[in-house]
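Forum: Protein Structure Q&A
Topic: Joint prediction for protein chains with partners

I've read a bunch of threads here and the consensus seems to be that you should model interacting components together rather than docking separate models afterwards. I'd like to see that in practice. Below is the full input, 413 residues plus whatever partners are listed. Could one of the regulars post the assembled result?
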Amino acid sequence: MSLMEKANDCCFSSVLSIATLSSAAFVVTLILVRVLYVIYCSSRPLSKRASKPVSTLIILGSGGHTAEMLNLLAVLQKDRFKPRFYIAAATDNMSLQKALLLENNLASESGTDVAVTAQFMKIYRSREVGQSYITSVWTTLIATVHALWLMIKIRPEVILCNGPGTCIPLCVIAFIFKVLGIRWSSIFYVESIARVRRLSLSGLLLYKLWMADQIFVQWPQLQQQYPRATYVGRLM
Amino acid sequence: MGGEERSEKTRRVVFVTVGTTCFDALVRAMDSENVKKELLAKGYTHLLIQMGRGSYVPTKSEGEGSLSVDHFTFSSSIADHLRSASLVISHAGSGSIFETLRLRKPLIVVVNEDLMDNHQSELAEELANRKHLYCASPQTLHQTIADMDLNSLLPYTPGHATPVANHINRFLGFPDD
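Posted by a regular:
Agreed with the consensus. Here's the joint model:
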């Protein structure tokens, strides 16, 4: 009797473990299929014609990166890309000021209130210039939690970024939101003009992980190295 | 008095900028005798150094048959200094490079070899290949100054962001303008 019970037990637990394993495998496969589907859809232009303005997150780098981003914003149609959310590193005071200047000029031209069309936020930086790659793993983690909070609040339809590392946590979260079906956002990454022969760490991550919808590069030799990137000429 | 007037007219300033970085190797190179000698030989009269976060302080000098040297750490009017310069010697940051090129000033970019991730030389070398500027290291700077021919530099035509904007618009399904 007790022997049979034992056998039953053994049989039951093995069935249970097989069931757990197969359902885990099923879930993993499901997620994988979804991830591949999201990557496939991201690489193609949106199927329906855009009719409404799109909420846009603009991730500012520092110095040269910001200058390039402002050049892009200067020619983007502001009535299509609104409202605009600007995020810059907490240690970078200049970039948000420059963006604020741009938005103030736009607002005074059109006679609207800046607060309606633009918002400005700061984020903990994942990696300072010159910081080692090993310690940046930890700082990236902290930045990710903060980024999650900001992304839940913003949920943008379009993300414009051009490095450096500040954009990585935000793009990862945006991608996860796409996979989970929380929000579909189109992620555009413009590689810095300073990158002639190799992508930056941020650019390389987004490229290798298939996380950006489009990666733009400013030098033809860079496009030859990374065929999925799009060459767009110099911004500066 | 007449001499003073003349020196105002023939004032040729070399402006050195390191941006917000710390680049003592460049400031030290500018302070070296062989670099100053070559600048003087090329007809420059004043040397103004923006030294940023660096700790090496160059020796000031009033001129009197030699190069007049002055320095400061930061300034909100870098653009004015660039405009009044006859030659700009800059770190390899893209901001400084393109600001100088847009003002059509002769430019020598000095690459900081101490940076961990030294991608900055990529841009300077590419633009040097296209003859928009000269590229040097702190060690070779005096040689670059001695050998440079500013008439052989080509003016830089600024790029434009419209192609990127068009790509983004098309991708999102916005109609072309």
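The CA atoms of residues 26 and 138 of chain B lie 5 Å apart.
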